[in-house]
Write a structure and sequence with these properties.
- The complex is a heterodimer of chains A (311) and B (247).
- Chain A has 311 residues and is mainly α.
- Chain A has helices at 2-10, 36-72, 77-84, 87-127, 134-149, 152-166, 175-201, 204-212, 217-247, 259-270, 274-307.
- In chain A, 26% of the residues are buried.
- With 247 residues, chain B is α/β, with parallel strands linked by helices.
- Chain B is built from nine helices and ten strands.
- Chain B has helices spanning 42-49, 74-79, 96-106, 112-125, 141-153, 171-186, 198-204, 222-227, 232-246, and strands at residues 4-13, 16-26, 31-35, 57-62, 65-66, 81-84, 159-163, 190-194, 207-212, 215-220.
- In chain B, the strands form two sheets. Chain B has a six-stranded mixed β-sheet, with helices on both faces. A four-stranded antiparallel β-sheet of chain B has the order 2-1-4-5, covered by helices on one side.
- In chain B, α3 packs parallel to α5.
- Chain B is globular, with a radius of gyration of 18 Å.
- The interface between A and B is medium-sized, with 21 and 27 residues.
Chain lengths: 311, 247
């Protein structure tokens, strides 16, 4: 760690080999030899780096020990250990919970595609200016206002029990499909706002340049604004998808055998809550890599923004 | 017949008048330079001609038809007018070649190969032969602005508007952009430039217009405007420019 710090930025500058220029040519820049002062400075920085690492290690150990001691010495610990951390119950429930989790992934993947389509369409409709589209635009505003305001779980109840109750010809009655529809309605509204903020973040001068080339509103969107907007909203979109991944568990209230439902079946038959822990671990196993990817993309976008001069 | 005719154009922003009854006529192949302090209305006038701003009164005619008629199709007007901006406004997600061929292909229906061949020819002519596949942020300011000029002329417009195209550039890069404009004049391109480069305006313009506070105070051939300005405000402005240069 301290090594990398010292090595990368301070190496001798890579001199451009220019065969036409003699070593003592008039325009030859002076060669850099590290001065005593710089060497002392680097030694001091390295020592400081080592000191920070030891302090961080020590404080981490103190905190972890305090947590472990505090929890295991608590009066209810033996009981918690038995009901939440039973290896036997874990092993017994895992296959079913895992099978249920595959359904969560399926719900997630299908919903994600529709959410992107709905979100993008709603965002684009809100950007239309022609008076012909006024009703559509009003509808889009109404949609985002309502569906961002209703708690997702309530929406799942409403769609999951309300739509079948209508007894419409051809309306879906399968709980998974209904759950997906509810998730799409809820997340579509959020994603529409993300897309809209991305579209609005593209500088007006880009639009002016496109219009000055006689591109129509639609062409300006398609070739100039959207490609830039979508690139900017990838990190917030991924963030919404991390959230969607775990909200697939809400579909459990409609009855399909996904991870949470499987876990609760096991939990209620054995009076042991360890299956919930199994389900939680599976969700974490999926969301953590996605969250790291989001961070990585956001950091890269930030580097690009400061690196490339965006006049 | 004049190519562009601006008649009594008014424009307000937030109840403040930016253009106050501006009249201007531009003949085919003529180069007109708009001079004046920042905020005098030069840029606004150009944006009004390109219909990027709607005027509040008056009329603008291009090739004898009124383009400020609400029934006129703005896209049809812009197909005949090119514009170059102070901050280049290249599309950062497209290569130089795509920036240049976008409008010919999507707006003018030119086939891709044809549009590319023409773009490469223009890049060649203006000293940017190796830059076709670069992204704009890999180019210097002068190179970016030259690409922006090429993008604007790739559709062979009737009229080219240049809005302070050298103001964002390092002094050493100004000449390369001015060079390309001079070449365009030689090809007979009709141009209106808003500019702070007085020496260049004197050299290239057929007509120089001085604006102040949204009023076109004086216009005439560069020799007259720069050597014997009639209006005292023009004289005062040129005096200030001269003093600034001596500093």
């Amino acid at each position: 760690m301290t090594d990398g710090h010292a090595a990368a930025p301070y190496g001798p500058p890579g001199r451009e080999d220019d065969p036409d220029r003699g070593p003592d040519g008039p325009g030859d820049p002076p060669e850099w030899v590290k001065s005593e002062r710089q060497l002392r400075r680097e030694a001091e920085l390295r020592a400081r780096g080592r000191r920070s690492v030891s302090i961080a290690t020590a404080s981490t150990i103190v905190v972890v020990v305090a947590l472990v001691v505090g929890i295991t010495k608590s009066p209810g610990w033996p009981r918690v250990q038995e009901t939440f951390l039973s290896p036997e119950a874990f092993v017994a429930a895992l296959p079913d919970v895992l099978r249920g989790f595959l359904l969560n992934i399926k719900i997630f993947l299908i919903a994600e595609v529709f959410i992107l389509v709905v979100g993008l369409l709603v965002a684009l409709v809100r950007g239309l200016r022609s008076p012909v589209f006024f009703p559509l635009r009003a509808l889009a505003v109404l949609y985002t206002d309502i569906f961002r305001g209703v708690p997702t779980i309530l929406l799942i109840y409403l769609v999951g029990f309300g739509v079948p109750a209508l007894q419409l010809q051809g309306a879906p009655s399968d709980p998974v499909t209904l759950g997906i529809i509810a998730l799409v309605l809820s997340y579509g509204a959020y994603v529409a706002e993300v897309f809209r903020s991305g579209i609005e973040s593209v500088h007006p001068s880009q639009r002016a340049a496109a219009r000055s080339l006689a591109l129509t509103h639609g062409q300006t969107m398609r070739y100039v604004v959207l490609p830039q907007a979508v690139r900017r909203v990838v990190p917030p979109l991924l963030n919404d998808f991390v959230s969607l991944q775990k909200d697939t568990a809400l579909v459990a209230v409609l009855g399909p055998l996904e991870a949470l439902r499987q876990a609760s079946i096991h939990a209620s038959s054995d009076f042991n809550y360890t299956p919930y822990l199994a389900a939680a671990l599976l969700f974490i196993a999926l969301t953590v890599p996605m969250a790291r990817l989001t961070d990585h993309l956001a950091a890269r976008a930030a580097r690009r923004r400061t690196g490339g001069g965006d006049a | 017949m004049s190519l562009l005719k601006v008649e009594g154009v008014w424009k307000h922003y937030h109840r403040q008048s930016v253009l106050r009854g501006v009249d201007l006529e531009v003949a085919p192949h003529e180069v007109v330079c708009l001079i004046g302090a920042s905020g005098s209305g030069k840029s606004t006038l150009l944006r009004c001609v390109n219909l990027l701003e709607t005027i509040d009164d008056g009329a603008i005619h291009l090739d004898g038809t009124e383009i400020t008629d609400p029934r006129a199709d703005p896209d049809d007007v812009r197909r005949r007018i090119g514009m170059v901006f102070q901050a280049y406004n290249l599309f950062p997600h497209m290569t130089v070649l795509d920036n240049i061929t976008l409008a010919p292909r999507r707006v003018h229906g030119v086939r891709a190969e044809e549009a590319e061949a023409r773009a490469r020819e223009l890049l060649d002519r203006f000293g940017l032969a190796g830059k076709a596949d670069e992204y704009p942020d890999r180019l210097s300011g002068g190179q970016q602005q030259r690409v922006a000029v090429i993008r604007a002329v790739a559709t062979t417009p009737r009229l080219l508007l240049l809005d302070e195209v050298t103001s964002a550039l390092d002094p050493t890069l100004v000449t390369e952009v001015l060079g390309i404009i001079r070449e365009l004049k030689d090809t007979g391109m009709t141009m209106i430039l808003a500019t702070h480069e007085m020496g260049f305006a004197r050299d290239i313009a057929d007509q120089v217009c001085f604006l102040e506070g949204g009023v076109l105070l004086e216009s005439g051939p560069p020799g007259q405007i720069f050597s014997e300005p009639r209006h005292p405000r023009t004289r005062a402005f040129l005096q200030r420019v001269l003093e600034a240069r001596r500093m």
